[in-house]
Amino acid sequence: MLKINSVGLTISAVPLLNNIIIDCPRGSVTALMGPNGAGKTSLLKVISGEHKASQGEVEINRQSREDWKPAEIAQFMAVLPQSSTLEFSFTSEEVVALGRTPHATGTVRDAEIITAALAKVDASYLAQRSFVQLSGGEKQRVQLARVLAQIWDHCECEGDASTDGILLLDEPSAAFDLAHQLMLIEIVQQISARGVTVVMVMHDLNLAAKCADQMVFMNCGHCTAVGTVSELLTPELIKKVFSVDAEVITHPVQGTPMVVV
Amino acid sequence: MKVLNTRLITPRLCGLLLLIALPMVSLLGLMTGPVFISLADILSITLSGNGGNSQEKLIIEIIRLPRVILSLLVGSLLATCGALLQGLFRNPLADPALIGVSAGASVGASLVIVFGSMLTANGLLLGLSAISVGAFAGAIITSVIIFRLATSPQGTSVATMLLAGIAISALAGAATNTLSYLADNDMLRRISLWQMGNLQGASWDRVGLCAVTAGFLGLLIPREARALNAILLGESEARHLGVNVEWLKRRLIIYSALGVAISVAVAGVIAFVGLMVPHVIRLLVGPDHRALLPLSALAGAILLVAADALARVVIPPAELPVGVVTALLGAPFFLWLLVVQRRRT
């Protein structure tokens, strides 16, 4: 679904990404991890089309990123940025409605989707509130509802869309409380089961371990390691990438690997 | 604490109220002036073409009707362009003066006032005086300079445009001041009156020019409403929502430069309408451009007609510059609205 073929990125003579190769099959969840400045967000921006790759290319649905028109790609790919700077007092409902901009599905269908998307991120009670007055976590939940609304047909109705959905998330859980972090994981699992390919930048190794099919460790613009959660979560790799001494134990109930520092 | 809706009224109600106010204010504009003309006379003159006495008929047909229509058109152009620029800059405080268009127009007009006597100052082009042509040229030239300065291969930077606009405004202000310094007393008076805006020069030619511009923009601008909503989230967010942001910015800049340049050319610098009207409408019905753009156009028209009517009756037989009145009327209302808004939240 999404292939990153030897992508390099150089901006103002500064190399930000170097020979990145990642393959994200349909319905997979990929977690991009690494220290600050490793190039995670830059990679996400190359995929979303904000930066043009200096070398290599991103392939979406067997077609080069360059060949997609913005209006076409917005039909099935949504991007959640790290933070938003909305100065105008839209209500939360109106912010989510902006997610329907690429579609012409009509006001009735859009209203249904908006209500459902807000409910999905536990933000129904915020629908009529002014977005600018919300807390950081509430804003991020409403923005999550907006990107879900954008690719709603791919998230909820399997199979009838011509292309499967892609969702790019940049530190989606940074502002969330514990319960909403788990809500995010559940949503990611749900939509990936419906065929949506998810790529997300995450800092919390344990949270990523809960839902990622594939982990990518990045450092200084390079891909240090790509593999499954159990392949990557080792004390040696964590030491190498994050310069932190950590133990990896097994979750007593779920059996997933856990990083303890 | 549960805040339900932060909006004061619905867009529908707002539109209805404005549509009721528009003809009422327009009639008021036709009635008031040095010679008072009764409502009955106005209706018989405008609807059947006769009635009233011949003097009243002349006043309506040659002076007041074109003036009221010109105010309607200029008011709606200024308010709509203000709304466009505020959306483009994602800043509710942006207005046409901010990107240097008004300052550039002032330079153009002042140049013609000071040096125009050497040219054929009485020549008219589409009903525009040489001063208007100078103002239009000044506005368009500054828009182009600022746009060029802000555009690089990476795209047009809105932040650079804002800074360039401030710098160009300062430069243009210095040029206008120099021209004022060189000017004699009569020229000086004309420069400063022009900068306060007035609709005295209204004529059917000018109405035609403005109507064509307003009609053209009125067809094109509403199509951008959804994209403008998306761009309020941020440029990259809008791009991810499928909006071709670079072309959108170019179109918005062209539309607003054209709208502002035409209104400045026919009516001088009228402050505050472009800044305040969209802001007030946004406080009333929210920032959705699908409602904001048409409602701003209506409210801008109403405000300017009302201000112009007032300008004619405050100190008879003289007239106040309409720009002074828009500020006198608008600013207290704006402040009141801000206070109300703060109490509600």
UniProtKB/TrEMBL annotation, chain B:
Q: Name one GO biological process term.
A: siderophore-iron import into cell
Record GO cellular component, one term: plasma membrane
Q: Which domain of life is it from?
A: Bacteria
- Keywords for this entry? Cell membrane, Membrane, Transmembrane, Transmembrane helix, Transport
Matching CDD domains: TM_ABC_iron-siderophores_like (cd06550)
- One Gene Ontology MF term: transmembrane transporter activity
Spans traversing the lipid bilayer: 64-85, 97-118, 124-147, 159-183, 252-280, 320-340
InterPro entries (UniProt xref): ABC_BtuC-like, ABC_transptr_permease_BtuC
Locations listed in the record: Cell membrane
Report the Gene3D superfamilies cross-referenced here: ABC transporter involved in vitamin B12 uptake, BtuC
Q: How does it sit in the membrane?
A: Multi-pass membrane protein
Q: Which family does it belong to?
A: Belongs to the binding-protein-dependent transport system permease family. FecCD subfamily.
- Name of the molecule in the record: Hemin ABC transporter, permease protein
Q: Which organism is it from?
A: marine gamma proteobacterium HTCC2143
Lineage here is: Bacteria, Pseudomonadati, Pseudomonadota, Gammaproteobacteria, Cellvibrionales
